[in-house]
Request: fold
Amino acid sequence: MKLSILDNAVKNIIQIIPQGIPPLLMRIGIFFVFWKSVQTKIDGADVAGQSFAFWNVTGSTKMLFEYEYGLPMPEFMAYLGTFGEFFLSIALLLGFMTRLSALGLLVMMAVIQYVYPGAWGLHLVWASILLYLLRDGGGSFSLDKIIK
Reply:
């Protein structure tokens, strides 16, 4: 009896949260994961401490893709990965083409998992969020919803 009262109280509290808030928070969280990463890969003029020179991939990034990641076509992959982190994270933050952006970041996350297999716990969290966004979209606080 007491458990059902507690269960109902929790359900009533949860119903206060607008449906668009969880996907919005998920989009913001994943944005910061990939945005922080891309900031280490590009160099150039910045705005408020953030570089937007996505085309200016650093030499150390190219070396990282060649020697640490061991991926084929390391220079191409460095640019592809950097562009993906830059544009897909911004699109996901805005909720623009959310499902496509989530899919692209999920593929990138799979490559990251391949390179760093020991970080599977963290990658599982990212994958869970990205799979949710891929399945359900960006929610009511997204450009997708406004455009639709």
Observations:
- The chain has seven helices and two strands.
- The chain has a mean pLDDT of 93.
- Strands lie at 46-47, 50-51.
